[in-house]
């Protein structure tokens, strides 16, 4: 076995450029597989982390009338909650309203969170007192869409609990930057205390957001949505991305494997005298087949080595500095930051390496298998078989 | 459309029972002058956008303040669009999709054809007497006419506008202006009636400007082209089937 490895190594090094071309394309494929999977894993982790921090918390209780994708339900989707029973839950009240920036009317969703809440990263705690106007927080996308800056006062019109129109001025006290567009676009945040006061919906909420400690999942009028269920959309999107990525890197892998296969076929064809000599010197046909198979699979080992030399510093840098996708990512439905930080887990590296090594070994074995049927005398003479 | 606006803003005055006798008398005279059992009107709605001005023509059939049917006549883009209001329900038929949809929830807050009027502005069909208490607040001169100023304050909780102010011509018993206020006192909408003419013995505004005062622009004009008071309107007009005819 050791002899086979030594021979395979010498044969490959001796083949020169042919070897390095095969290794080159296999390395490229190997790196692309790792990079793309790492990017998707990084995106997945980042999107989930941000979604938990900015929107979902550790699970939610939705009011029985609340349907997240049906704005018609918002009017009735609110109810009182028992403060003692819901310790560890953060109430979020959602209402519909309109604002009038620069003489335009914009329909918005008005959201209220307790001033001292810790469940979400929405900077409600930064909303201080302002004379004559209610302080509100908006996201960067909302600020751009409505052309608003910190300190701007706008008229807000809403309906109170009885459906009566009310209007007042609100002042933009803080603008936050989040990757989660669903807490930003078309939304205005104020303290729950202010929202209760202006709508008359004291001690009412649309959603109760759970913190890490909260375990109970049974409440009247409230349906529990687990964190996994809330994150399902992100998982689904990532899986779709992963499937399309697989097509790309399987094509690349197919090209690389085709090159190895081609080389192996050529080797078996052109090195018949060498094969005959091995057999004449005492190697069994199976050992010669094994030697050629090891030669083929050694391309993948070389590509691991070259891939490590190129990939380790490159991926280390990318994982540390992230990759900027510019403005393209800004308004996607799934949380996507200005920079994505790829994540290269040991599982990813090992599984990618195994895919390349196993597939290279298989395509090496198929042409080498012909050696088993060779006549050693004819092979020594170098006659075509 | 103009007819619906009048219904939305003024017609409920018809049965208004105010505590202050003066206000009641004034409103009854207004009602006598303006309200008919049924009406057929042809009108234009002039919508002033930031870049252009759009004129939409329509023909409306109205019975009381519960039933109305409007068909849009021009421009080509809106031609054939129909709207049916029966009590608190509103349907819209679009010929391009051949679909009838019922508007509800926040869709009712959308503007009608890009105007300053929302669908829900046309949906209020309760009598003002049931939901407001009124008084004559004073007198002044408006557009050269002597007017009474009536203030209506909501007497129940579930009303859209907490306060209404109405300016009524003392001689012709016709409203010249109405303002709608939020609970906080913020003025939300203003309606101005002009080009008052006598039609079939009634004083009637031929032009109504409807303005959402929180928005920029000059508001939306409703211009009355033709009006018939108390015509016979077949019952089938106020059915969903008529939307697709």
Describe the 3D structure.
The complex is a heterodimer of chains A (385) and B (245). Chain A has 385 residues and is an alpha+beta fold. Helices cover 49% and strands 18% of the residues of chain A. Chain A has two domains: 2-52 and 233-381, no CATH class; 60-225, no CATH class. Chain A contains ten helices and 13 strands. In chain A, α6 (232-270) runs parallel beside α9. The radius of gyration of chain A is 32 Å and the shape is elongated. Chain B has a 13-stranded antiparallel beta sheet with strand order 6-5-4-3-2-1-13-12-11-10-9-8-7. Chain B has one domain: outer membrane lipoprotein receptor (LolB), chain A (Clam). Chain B starts with a helix and ends in a 16-residue tail after the last strand. Chain B has 245 residues and is mostly beta strands. Chain A: The chain crosses the membrane at residues 20-39, 247-269, 301-319, 348-366. Chain A: Pfam families: FtsX (PF02687).
Summarize, please.
With 385 residues, chain A is an alpha+beta fold. Chain A contains 10 helices and 13 strands.
Net shape of chain B: globular
Largest sheet of chain B, in brief, is: 13 strands, antiparallel
Q: Order of strands in the sheet with the most strands of chain B?
A: 6-5-4-3-2-1-13-12-11-10-9-8-7
Mean pLDDT value of chain A: 85
Given the structure, what is the number of helices of chain A?
10
Q: How would you name the oligomeric state of the polypeptide chains in this document?
A: heterodimer
The secondary-structure class of chain A comes to: alpha+beta
Proportion of beta-strand residues of chain B: over 45%
DSSP helix count of chain B?
3
Instruction: Report the sheet-strand fraction of chain A.
Output: 15-25%
Taken together, the total number of domains of chain B comes to: 1
Instruction: Give the SSE string of chain B.
Output: HHEEEEEEHEEEEEEE
Order of helices and strands of chain A: HHEEEEEHEEEHEEEHHHHEEHH
| Full CATH superfamily name of chain B | Lipoprotein localisation LolA/LolB/LppX
Shape of chain A: elongated
The value of Rg of chain A in angstroms is 32 Å
Low-pLDDT runs of chain A: none
The second-level CATH architecture of chain B is Clam
* Total domain count of chain A: 2
CATH topology of chain B: outer membrane lipoprotein receptor (LolB), chain A
InterPro entries (chain B): Sporulation_related, TP_0789-like
Pfam family, one (chain B): LolA_like
Domain Uncharacterized protein TP-0789 (chain B): 64-245
Organism (chain A): Cyclobacterium qasimii
């Amino acid at each position: 076995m050791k002899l086979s490895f030594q021979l395979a190594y010498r044969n490959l090094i001796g083949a020169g450029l042919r070897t390095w071309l095969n290794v080159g394309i296999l390395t490229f494929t190997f790196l692309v597989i790792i990079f793309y999977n790492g990017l998707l894993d990084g995106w997945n982790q980042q999107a989930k982390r941000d979604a938990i921090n900015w929107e979902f918390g550790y699970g939610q209780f939705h009011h029985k009338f609340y349907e997240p994708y049906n704005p018609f339900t918002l009017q009735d989707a609110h109810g009182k909650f028992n403060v003692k029973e819901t310790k560890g839950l953060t109430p979020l009240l959602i209402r519909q309203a309109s604002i009038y920036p620069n003489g335009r009317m914009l329909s918005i969703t008005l959201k209220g969170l307790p001033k001292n809440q810790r469940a979400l990263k929405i900077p409600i705690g930064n909303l201080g007192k302002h004379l004559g106007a209610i302080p509100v927080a908006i996201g960067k996308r909302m600020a751009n869409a409505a052309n608003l800056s910190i300190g701007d006062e706008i008229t807000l019109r809403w309906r109170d609990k009885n459906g009566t129109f009310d209007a007042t001025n609100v002042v933009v006290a803080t603008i936050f930057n989040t990757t989660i567009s669903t807490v930003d676009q078309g939304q205005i945040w104020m303290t729950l205390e202010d929202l209760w006061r202006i709508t008359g919906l004291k001690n009412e909420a649309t959603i109760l957001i759970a913190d890490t400690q909260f375990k109970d999942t049974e409440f009247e009028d409230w349906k529990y949505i687990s964190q996994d269920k809330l994150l399902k959309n992100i998982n689904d999107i990532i899986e779709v991305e992963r499937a399309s990525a697989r097509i790309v890197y399987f094509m690349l892998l197919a090209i690389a494997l085709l090159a190895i296969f081609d080389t192996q076929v050529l080797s078996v064809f052109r090195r018949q005298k060498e094969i005959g000599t091995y057999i004449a010197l005492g190697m069994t046909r199976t050992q010669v087949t094994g030697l050629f198979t090891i030669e083929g699979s050694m391309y993948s080992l070389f590509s691991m080595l070259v891939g490590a030399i190129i990939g380790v510093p490159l991926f280390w840098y990318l994982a540390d500095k992230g990759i900027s996708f510019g403005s393209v990512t800004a308004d996607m439905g799934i949380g996507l930051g200005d920079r994505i930080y790829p994540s290269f887990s040991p599982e990813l590296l090992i599984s990618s390496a195994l895919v390349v090594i196993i597939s290279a070994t298989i395509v090496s074995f198929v042409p080498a298998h012909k050696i088993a049927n060779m006549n050693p005398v004819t092979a020594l003479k170098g006659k075509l078989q | 459309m103009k007819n619906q606006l009048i219904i939305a803003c003024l017609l409920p005055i018809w049965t208004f029972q105010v505590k202050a006798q003066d206000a009641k008398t004034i409103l009854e005279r207004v009602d006598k002058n303006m309200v008919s059992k049924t009406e057929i009107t042809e009108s234009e709605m002039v919508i002033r956008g930031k870049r252009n001005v759009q004129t939409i023509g329509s023909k409306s059939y109205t019975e009381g303040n519960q039933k109305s049917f409007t068909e849009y006549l021009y421009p080509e883009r809106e031609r054939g669009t129909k709207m049916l209001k029966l009590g608190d329900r509103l349907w819209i038929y679009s010929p391009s999709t051949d679909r009838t949809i019922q508007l509800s929830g926040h869709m009712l807050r959308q503007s009608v054809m890009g105007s300053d009027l929302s669908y829900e502005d046309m949906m209020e069909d309760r009598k003002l007497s049931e939901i407001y208490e009124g008084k004559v607040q004073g007198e002044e001169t408006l557009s050269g006419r002597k007017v009474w100023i009536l203030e209506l304050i909501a007497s129940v909780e579930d009303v859209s506008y907490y306060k209404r102010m109405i300016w009524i011509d003392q001689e012709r018993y016709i409203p010249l202006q109405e303002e709608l206020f939020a609970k906080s006192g913020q003025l939300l909408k203003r309606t101005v009636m002009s080009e008052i003419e006598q039609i079939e013995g009634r004083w009637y505004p031929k032009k109504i400007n409807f303005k959402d005062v929180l928005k920029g622009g000059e508001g939306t004009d409703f211009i009355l082209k033709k009006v018939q008071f108390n015509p016979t309107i077949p019952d089938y007009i106020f059915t969903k089937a008529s939307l697709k005819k």
